[in-house]
Amino acid sequence: MNSNKNIPSYAEGLEELQNNLGNMLPKEALAIFESDAAQLQATHTTILQLQKGDTAPDFSLSNAIGETITLNVLLQKSKVVLTFYRGTWCPYCNLQLHQYQQVLGEITSLGAQLVAISPQTPDESLTIKEKNNLQFEVLSDNGNIVAKQFTTVFKNDEKPIAAMIDLGINFDNHYADDSQELPIPAVFIIEKDRTISFAKAIDGDYRNRVEASEIINALKK
């Protein structure tokens, strides 16, 4: 059990989510997703393109309502907690972002702002904001141009895409290009001078995410 009751535990949330998915989804689909996650974990052992101490590149991306958001402008206000995620359709992304929203007040009080990036369209960014009542910027990185500078990007396999279609989820509808590429989830803390003070991805298995408590502890240092 998480010792701090104010900070949700992703590990506990993941266990509950997987139990729910196990009851909801066909065994054939679950087997495909399980195999895909295991393959990604085995294949991608080195993920981060930028490490602690590196300088974060500037970027400009559209937010959920079409406004252009620039890293340098954000950093004029405060440091930035930057997280890369896959999409609205991904239950693990929804769990992670929902939990980060729960600690947004503490992140802000520690002198930082939270920003989430995915290759989704702005409309899909708006959907995930509304779905999880997110009060932070959710940006659209068409073609994973920014993601490729921070984390590993890979082409989603045909089998999980087909399994999603069988479940009524059209993967391609969430994105503006047809690359079918996704970022491996990762979190960075960027100081006001663009120095990266925290950089972490768990592994290639997209179900594993950085705990909110790790972000809070890093901001407190």
From TrEMBL:
Top-level division of the source organism's lineage: Bacteria
EC number, UniProt record: 1.11.1.24
Name of the top EC class for this enzyme: oxidoreductase
Disulfide bond listed as a keyword: yes
Alphabetically ordered keywords of this record: Antioxidant, Disulfide bond, Oxidoreductase, Peroxidase, Redox-active center
Gene Ontology MF annotations: thioredoxin peroxidase activity
InterPro entries: AhpC/TSA (IPR000866), Peroxiredoxin_BCP/PrxQ (IPR050924), Thioredoxin-like_sf (IPR036249), Thioredoxin_domain (IPR013766)
Reactions catalysed: a hydroperoxide + [thioredoxin]-dithiol = an alcohol + [thioredoxin]-disulfide + H2O
Thioredoxin domain residues: 50-221
GO biological process: cell redox homeostasis; cellular response to oxidative stress
GO cellular component: cytoplasm
Role of this protein: Thiol-specific peroxidase that catalyzes the reduction of hydrogen peroxide and organic hydroperoxides to water and alcohols, respectively. Plays a role in cell protection against oxidative stress by detoxifying peroxides and as sensor of hydrogen peroxide-mediated signaling events.
Protein family membership: Belongs to the peroxiredoxin family. BCP/PrxQ subfamily.
Protein name, entry field: thioredoxin-dependent peroxiredoxin
Source species: Kordia periserrulae
